[in-house]
Amino acid sequence: MSVREIRHPLVQHKLSLLRDKDISTRSFRELTGEIGSLLTYEATADLELEEYTVESWIGPTAGQRIKGKKITVVPILRAGLGMLDGVLSMVPSAKVSVVGLYRDEETLQPVTYFEKMASDIDQRMALIVDPMLATGGSMLACIDMLKAAGCEQIRALVLVAAPEGIRLIEEKHPDVELYTAAIDERLNDQGYIVPGLGDAGDKIFGTR
Length: 208
Ligand code: URA
Fold this sequence. Notes:
Elements: E1 2-5, H1 9-19, H2 25-43, E2 49-56, E3 59-66, E4 70-77, H3 81-90, E5 95-96, E6 98-103, E7 110-116, E8 124-129, E9 132-133, H4 137-148, E10 153-161, H5 163-172, E11 177-183, E12 186-187, E13 193-194, H6 200-205
Parallel strand pairs: 1-11, 4-5, 4-6, 4-8, 8-10, 9-10, 10-11
Antiparallel strand pairs: 2-3, 6-7, 12-13
Helix pairs in contact: 1-2, 2-3
Bound molecules: uracil (URA).
């Protein structure tokens, strides 16, 4: 897996605001969406273009449009929904494929409780969105599901990644590209990223 930590000043500024322990639900939600947009901008920078003729006000004019695979955005429930609108603001025609996973408390393995993929997912590039790449278990399960459905080009967008999660995805899916606003230090005993953001799902939904 190739990993790109996006050091753009806007991303780093917004991420630092997200780390503030006193941030409001409203600000956390807004900033999560905004960073989602900026990560999408970076993750789509190499999309191929083709030329076509635009019938402009002054007559035929050379234009360019995105060629090749269309996109499906894949939010992992629930926290991934927090990035969805921001991502769609950059790729408004993308289809959305939703994956719901929870962790079985006994086996500690991710269990799928919802899966609804775009019907033509084998023809699309997937942009998985989930704010926190912690152990990597959910991301791994989601990538496995996408590949089983025939999806061949997968990129993952996260706000913060832990080295443990990066290592797991690198080992299992070296072809997947990761875009993150930060690579943090480590996981703590409860599986939270340090310094991280705390529970991103709770902060997005105001349930903390
Ligand atoms: N999920 C979160 O919301 N935060 C973490 O730090 C790890 C997983």
